[in-house]
Amino acid sequence: MDRATINRITYIRAMRQFGVMLQPGKHINSGIGPRLNVGPGKTIHYLPPNKFVTQEMETVTIAGLNVTIIHIPGETTDQIAIWLSSQKILFAADDIYKAFPNLYAIRGSPNRDLLQWIESLDKMRHLRPEIVVPSHTRPIYGVDVIQNLLTNYRDAIQFVHDQTVRFMNQGMLPDDIIQKIQLPPNLAKHPYLQEFYGTVEWSVRGVFSGYLGWFNGDPINLNPLPRVERARHIVELAGGVQKALESAQIANKQGQYHWTLELASNILLVDNSQSDARYLKINALEQLAQTQTSFNGRNYYLTCALETNGEIEIMAPPKHVQNSVIRVMPIMFLLRSMTRLLNIERAADVRTTAVFDFDDIKEIYTIQIRNSIAEVTLADLIAITDGVDVRLTTTVDVFKEIAIGERSAVKAYAVGDITIEGGLISFIKFMNYFDKS
Question: What is the CA radius of gyration of the chain?
Answer without folding.
Answer: 26
